[in-house]
S-adenosylmethionine:tRNA ribosyltransferase-isomerase
Amino acid sequence: MKLSNFNFELPEELLAEYPSEHRDESRLMVLHRDTQKIEHKKFKDLIDYFDEGDVMMLNNTKVFPARMFGHKEKTGARIEVFLLRELNAENRLWDVLVDPARKIRIGNKLFFGEDQSLVAEVIDNTTSRGRTLRFLFDGPYEEFRKKLVELGETPLPKYIKREVEASDEDRYQTIFAKHEGAVAAPTAGLHFSKHLMKRLEIKGIDFAETTLHVGLGTFNPVEVEDLSKHKMDSEKIIVPQASADMVNSARGNKKRICAVGTTVMRTVESAITSKRELKEFEGWTNKFIFPPYDFSIANAMITNFHTPKSTLLMMVSAFAGHDFMMEAYQEAIKEGYKFYSYGDAMLIL
């Protein structure tokens, strides 16, 4: 498959600026791979497609407020700093993106907070926009992390042109978020409400938790026509033994195993035994899934609507079938479904 196979015209007004008022009230397009049938539902109708003993695999990563604004020493120029990953806790070293990058050189100091209570020094250039920062903070590590949270804001995607609002802190986070480490939300999970989770639980559906700390690499544009030449950034993943056991047992019983989101699908496909079972795993993955691909674990998937030429669209096309997925996307545009992080959802069966 080529990059151009995943291009389509997406009207700008279909990029969601806000989530639906209630999490489980977003729209749900249901794709039946066996019959090529498409249904239009609400997300809370999801429960009708699952039975006792089925398993939903969730990503329990937690988004941290990764976007900060500082000022450059001497000139006072306003600089956006996006925290990507902590490199060394003891030395307060972070891998970051800066904007505008041309103004930021090794040796520059950045000041954060109205009282300039946090200072960072640029100690390395990593990419055109990437820098390594050393934060100069005298207090204990817990206080330093608290300060980052206090000064940071919810890292909404750039296409959302509005200012971050107080409600984003809650809504750009799944209700089952536990382990901090993501700079973007695993968006398929945003549609689950406490009420819907309780109803699924009562019906006997099990939840297997995994972790993938979403990095910005997930959203890096693909710039090569030959997809086999695209390289994904590495992201940290964890599959606990209890989740592997639950999924393998359900698989043995021919139950429905649903990956909630592309991040979960990449996680489980990166933790497979030679017998094509899920195994306990903690490490890194840079797995890139595009058609054709033979999936090992999940036989159902929940996902949002993705942007043209994205690695996320390529993965869901591998799962649903490329032609069927592109047909579904044209239908979604015609029906006015909302796309991307705060958009509507799709269930692929």
Notes: Helices lie at 141-151, 168-171, 194-203, 241-252, 262-269, 311-320, 322-334. The longest strand covers residues 78-88. The radius of gyration is 21 Å. The chain has two domains: 3-63+169-348, 67-153.
